[in-house]
Design a protein that fits this description.
535 residues; 18 strands; 38% helix; six-stranded parallel sheet; seven-stranded mixed sheet
């Protein structure tokens, strides 16, 4: 047995069976051994952020890690943005990164980031990162990574594998160990939160991670029914169960202008797998904390706790009913007509989204209207792709989610600007024949940045400023872009056209793309932000 064989036996023994890959010369022994390893599905991606974004989407929906195969430090660096998003989403993931042979690294230092090691870079975006020192190390590190990646809500683990460790003889990997036990919330904390829920104060419970779907959301709904607390979810939910029959929740607003007034009514905020609510970015003269000082914030369970156990213990302690008080009801509305806008697209999707679909969002400017329009759709999972704020994750996250759940329809709402970060995802969608419908919201603009620019500019923007925000010279042709990579595509310019095309896409399997050329008026929002700016 060589080191590569030991590594893949350790990973497959731990249940990892899907590899998103973009290999290079240093990974050829690994490619060969994957080809000889039963139970591993390799999926080729043409850019590393597609690799890591797909592993993110897979982990969110499968509840177990995929592993990636990346080409040395440069390949890992290309994939960092979506590893960062995955870390913020608390996704479980294992990365395998090739490296120059240990005996050759001193002779070609620039290949190792000029005086630094790949593992140093990996540690910036990994919870756990180690480099093999020998072939026998690889099997041990593979087993450790697979085990630790499932700790808490999920961890990012990276194994750096020098080439000589691939082909040198190795001992067999260790016997698979039982999963690491995730820490449980203490009985004292349970009682403290019971006291908060019964003190009569206006209370909200902010949910994140595993509390936003499945048993976690059901338990939270029952606790809310007993206590009268409002249920909130993080601004960028990694996976949220919503739609007809699901426990009703409110999403914390993104912009501080909306979020700060939103929290004014609350005297208490309890965090369950959610971070303290702050703005993603700092704005001149504006508060970064969304919660008023008068609101007491208590962390009940973090992503490093056993969230489901904590909610179950709390539900028992407060004596919850068997069912949540409120569930989302189905919205009934007529098909839209007229101009194609984010609102009419949301209306169509609210009507036509299939039962148990997966809806991925990567369209910052239109996200609010599309989120609102699909609240009353049939039951589905909602994935905010860019949990870490690095745009362009939508297409690969949808790819990975579809690989994890082949019997469910996946729809991704993709901005035309953010989609250009990872358009290579379309090629892999076609090659793997995944059931993904891509809706590109085409406004020829980085629309959200027009709003952000209004915070800092004096007077009107000039052409030089706008040239860095507009995408209309030349305008992108997503139909041609999709067809060139094997994905059938259509274009919609009216609400009626989009409704027909989306209905057709929902009735057939396989990858499809709809370029939706939307009419959008951001000027009221731009003017409001500009008026409220701090000079």
């Amino acid at each position: 047995m060589n080191g590569a064989q030991a590594l893949f036996k350790a990973l497959t023994d731990a249940g990892l069976d899907t590899c998103f890959a973009n290999p290079g010369t240093s990974e050829m022994q690994l490619v060969y051994e994957i080809g000889q390893t039963k139970g591993v599905r390799p999926i080729l991606c043409l850019e590393e952020n597609v690799v890591t974004g797909a592993a993110d989407g897979y982990g969110r929906m499968a509840g177990r890690p995929a592993f990636t195969l990346l080409h040395v430090g440069s390949g890992f660096a290309n994939g960092i943005a979506n590893i960062h998003n995955a870390g913020r989403a608390n996704t479980t993931m294992v990365n395998v990164v090739g490296a120059n042979a240990t005996y050759h690294q001193p002779n070609f230092a620039e290949h190792e980031f000029i005086g630094g090691k790949i593992v140093d870079l990996a540690r910036v975006v990994s919870h756990w990162a180690h480099e093999a020192k020998s072939a026998s190390d690889l099997g041990v590190l593979g087993a450790m990574a697979a085990r630790y990646s499932r700790m808490g809500a999920g961890k990012i683990c990276t194994v750096v594998a020098p080439t000589n460790c691939h082909w040198d003889p190795a001992v067999a990997p260790p016997v698979p160990a039982a999963p690491l036990e995730t820490p449980k919330v203490s009985p004292q904390t349970i009682q403290e939160v019971v006291a908060l829920l019964t003190n009569g104060k206006k209370t909200a419970i902010a949910l994140g991670s595993h509390a936003m779907y499945g048993d976690g959301l059901e338990l939270a709904g029952r606790i809310a029914a007993k206590s009268g607390a409002d249920l909130l979810v993080e601004t960028t939910p990694s996976r949220l169960a919503r739609g007809e029959g699901r426990v009703a929740v409110e999403k914390i607003p993104y912009l501080p202008e909306d979020a700060i007034p939103f929290f004014q009514k609350y005297e208490q905020l309890i965090l369950v797998g959610a971070l303290f609510p702050v703005t993603t970015f700092a704005y001149k003269g504006k508060p970064v904390i969304k919660v008023p000082a008068s609101c007491e914030v208590t962390a009940f369970a973090t992503v490093d706790h056993d969230i489901l156990s904590a909610l179950a213990d709390l539900a028992k302690a407060v004596g919850t009913p068997s069912q949540p008080a409120t569930r989302r009801v189905r919205s009934e509305r007529a098909p839209p007509s007229g101009a194609l806008t984010d609102a009419t697209i949301g209306q169509t999707m609210g009507l036509l989204l299939p039962q148990n679909a997966i809806l991925v969002s990567d369209s910052a400017t239109t996200e609010a209207a599309l989120y609102l329009g699909t609240e009353g759709a049939l039951a589905h999972d909602y994935l905010f792709a860019d949990c870490g704020g690095a745009i362009g994750a939508g297409l690969p996250v949808a790819l990975g989610a579809a690989v994890a759940c082949p019997d469910r329809k996946t729809i991704v709402l993709e901005g035309d600007g953010s989609g250009m970060y990872t358009p290579q995802s379309l090629w892999t969608m076609a090659r793997e024949n995944v059931d993904v419908t891509v809706v590109v919201l085409k406004n020829d603009n980085y629309g959200i940045l027009n709003i952000e620019l209004a915070r800092v500019r004096d007077g009107d923007p000039n052409e030089k400023m706008l040239s860095m925000l507009h995408l209309s010279n030349p305008s992108l042709d997503w139909v041609k872009l999709a067809e060139a990579q094997g994905v059938p595509a259509t274009r919609a310019t009216t609400a009626e056209e989009f409704h027909r095309q989306f209905a057709a896409a929902m009735s057939t399997k396989g990858p499809k793309l709809i370029e939706a050329k939307i009419v959008q008026n951001l000027q009221p929002a731009i003017d409001a932000v500009h008026k409220a700016r701090v000079p």
